[in-house]
Design brief:
The chain is α/β, with parallel strands linked by helices. The chain has one domain: Vaccinia Virus protein VP39 (Rossmann fold), CATH 3.40.50.150. The strands form 2 sheets. It has an 8-stranded mixed β-sheet, sandwiched between helices. Strands 1-2-3 form a 3-stranded antiparallel β-sheet, with helices on one face. It comes from Chryseobacterium pennipullorum.
């Protein structure tokens, strides 16, 4: 799929897929969206010592980077194991041009950004002390065959239902639910009524939250 880089309203960049007429992130602000959906309404709500995160999908790596940024703000007395699925990894040129490390004041972020993208696929790599990343190149529906520890937090960041409706239907949510711990949290930018109903059918407690800039609502769902 042909992709081009665009700048979103908060100055951060995203990828745009011409054939699908779809951005990887909100055009209102890629960084703002990631921090609001996956940090404020995700990571910051988890208090476990060891946090196992499952991301669908890795995309540009921005969600990994904002997660590390938040982790570095803590006293780092906990461990994060981050598992990220991706079917279509971005290329070296796109990684260079996105340059997400420039969005952060920490001078170490250029090295961290490079370590994230240079990390071998299918291997767990310690990006910084206490933060382990495993990138897995696969179709999301291959999740059923992937061995994972019980997941405390899911970043459900698939492309929108307009272009990939099958990713927002019950079969994939069932696979995700099977990997989650009781009281695990799923967070997503979507607020579709059909998604809320599916999650409720799968025994999640679903809450509508204020959405990121440009979006009225989003969803948090706790596995009961």
């Amino acid at each position: 799929m042909k992709r081009e880089i665009k700048t979103t309203n908060d100055g951060s960049k995203t990828l745009f897929i011409n054939d699908l007429n779809e951005n990887y992130h909100s055009h209102h602000g890629a960084l703002q969206e990631a921090e609001h959906v996956f940090i404020k309404n995700g990571l910051n709500l988890i208090n476990d010592y060891e946090i196992n995160i499952l991301e669908l999908g890795f995309g540009t790596g921005l969600n990994v980077l904002v997660t590390i940024n938040e982790y570095l703000k803590t006293d780092k007395n906990h461990v994060i194991n981050y598992f990220s699925l991706e079917k279509y990894p971005i290329n070296e040129s796109e990684i260079k041009d996105l340059a997400y490390f420039e969005l952060f004041d920490n001078p170490e972020f250029k090295n961290i950004y490079q370590k994230i993208h240079l990390a071998d696929w299918e291997k767990s790599v310690e990006i910084i002390s206490g933060f382990h990343l495993k990138k897995i190149e696969c179709d999301f529906f291959d999740l059923k065959n992937i061995e994972l520890p019980k997941i405390n937090l899911v970043y459900f960041d698939c492309f929108g239902a307009r272009v990939q409706p099958d990713l927002w239907e019950k079969p994939l949510f069932e696979l995700v639910s099977d990997k989650m711990a009781v009281n695990g949290l799923l967070t997503t930018y979507s607020s579709k009524g059909s998604v809320r109903r599916i999650l409720q059918e799968l025994n999640f407690q679903v809450e509508k939250k204020q959405g990121p800039p440009g979006k009225r609502e989003m969803i948090n769902a706790i596995k009961l």
